[in-house]
Amino acid sequence: MTYQGFELDAETALALLDWQLEMGVDVPMLDAPVDRFDLPARVVPELPPAQVRAATPALPGLDDDLSARLAQAEALAAGAASLEALAAAQESFDGIELKKGARNFCFADGNPKARVLVLGEAPGDEEDRQGRPFVGRAGQLLDRMFAAIGLARDAVDAERALYIVNVLTWRPPGNRDPSPDEIAVSLPFLRRHIELAAPEVIVLMGNIPCQAALEKRGILRLRGHWVQAFGRPALPMAHPAYLLRNPAAKREAWGDLLSLAARLESLSV
Ligand code: URA
Fold first, then answer.
1. Can you list the domains of the chain with their CATH numbers?
2. With CB atoms counted within 10 Å of each terminal CB, which end of the chain scores lower, N or C?
3. Helices (H) and strands (E) in the chain, counts
4. Which residues contact 164 (CB under 8 A, 6 or more apart)?
């Protein structure tokens, strides 16, 4: 079988389909409708015998390379005893290609002692320029949203503060979604980051944090339902960039913010 000029065996084709499912593809669609009653007769290719398939190496080198990068990320993260040490360790880590194309390392913003940690996706253009998460248009909306329940990233009092972190610390080019490998090598740092900051609750802002923390996508189904993530109560919410494009969804986001405020209240008593 060939795909866009490349030879593709059945196992690789299935692996590609699995990967698409993991990325959230649930409905295969073409640009134009297909009349399936009027398709030419299909030739079903014969699969090679099982022993030949088993002997076919799957993308040689890739898995070893990823395991080595993961092991290095785990070791660096585990060795960091403070947030400052973790930031230095993560910035020094070269096992993520995005580092080469980004302008600035984007570790966190706000008050690390805050009760609430907001987990976003990845730096965009403005965040990449400033080296701080959520400082573009979506970030400005995020600030207004949390201000409505009395929380702010610049609050000194931990009760009223926010701590803001992204799954990725380097900007993906063109704001594309991070790849599963990029998320995987960022996770050891993120886990340690959350351990060291020790927030009481986490807000999972959008699909990528849900993918990283829960291995689930589908934020519009997940939002508003409390879950456990990184060993703490977590609330998935629609990303402010989505709310900018779909203002009607702000009503539900307001409901989610009220749910967060109520949870904080109940944890304080
Ligand atoms: N979107 C995010 O998820 N994080 C940012 O820092 C900016 C935009």
1. 64-268 (3.40.470.10)
2. C
3. 12, 8
4. 108, 109, 110, 117, 118, 120, 133, 134, 142, 153
Ligand 1 centroid–CA 52 distance in Å is 46
> Which atom of ligand 1 lies closest to the CA of 164?
6
- Is pLDDT at 137 greater than 90 in this prediction? yes
What's the mean pLDDT in 212-220?
A: 97
Distance 53 CA to ligand 1 centre (A): 42
pLDDT digits (tens, 9 = 90+) for 252-267: 999 999 999 999 999 9
Q: Whose CA is nearest to atom 7 of ligand 1?
A: 134
What pLDDT score does 269 carry? 80
Around ligand 1, the residues with Cβ closer than 6 Å are 120-124, 127, 133-134, 136, 138-139, 166, 205, 241
Closest CA to 96 of 120, 66, 61: 66
Tell me the per-residue pLDDT of 152-177, one tens digit each, with 9 for 90 and over. 999 999 999 999 999 999 999 999 99
In this model, does residue 146 exceed pLDDT 50?
yes
